[in-house]
Structures are given as structure tokens and as C-alpha cells.
Predict the 3D structure of the following.
Amino acid sequence: MFQVLALDLEGTLISNAMSQIPRPGLFAFLERCREMFPRVVMFTTVNEVRFRAIARLLVEEGYAPAWFQEMEFVQWQGKTKDLSFIPGAEIITTLLVDDFDAYVHPGQEAQWVQVAYFDYPYLTTDMGLTQVLQQLDALTTATVCATVQSPSTA
Ligand SMILES: [Mg+2]
């Protein structure tokens, strides 16, 4: 069972920290993530002050649910998003949604859920977040099935 979902910001949920264009389906995506995972955290190269400002605007404009501006923010350093920077999180039960493979920490490839880079011209028909939800659904369902089946095989 997955416990923690780490979300990238730029190119995943919004265009980038400059233009801040929300990706189509953002509100519903965030709400669904919160239903599916006990803990959802922000794991981004954007600093926390900047993230909070961006999040507040997205909430005010109705693109994101209220909890988004107060969500847990991961402090980290280095070249890759090592999931061990998430306090108390077990790597094996953590997933990272990110558009950029270079941020995936060596050895943690299995925890990565790749999302298509949200890029110019920022189409309103973009399906990136919908596709991620399908992947997350498949991953969490597969884990539940494996858990249910394990007693009979033991
Ligand atoms: Mg990104």
C-alpha cells in the first residue's frame, strides 16, 4: 500500500514558476490524489516561499483546493529528488510524480510515475494529469490485489 505521494510543480502541475499556467484538470487531480494517498507532499526545485505564493494564487483563482497552499513541502538538496528527504517516509511506499527523468534518484526508478511535460502551447486539451491518475489507479489497485492474495499463497 502506498502511503506518500510526492508531486513535482513545474511542468507537472503548472507550466513554470514564471507563467504559472495551471494544467488542465489540476483541481480534480489534486483532490483525487488526496483521496488515494494518506500523505501528499510537494517536492519541487521552486523554493517554499515562492511555492506558497503560487499556490495561494491558484487557490484564489479556483484552480486548486484550499489545502494546496498549506500542503507539506519537502526540504531537500542535491541534484536528484531522493525520496529519503521526505521525513519518516518509506521509499518503497512512496511515489514521485515528475516530468523530468534527471530528477529521479538512482535506485528509486520504480517509485517514479512519469508525467508528460506540460509545455507550450499549453493546450486546454492536455491529458497529462488524467494519464497520471490512470497510472496511480493501476499502481494502487495492483498493490491492493497483491495484499489480498498474499495470505492464500502463504
Ligand atoms: Mg518538473
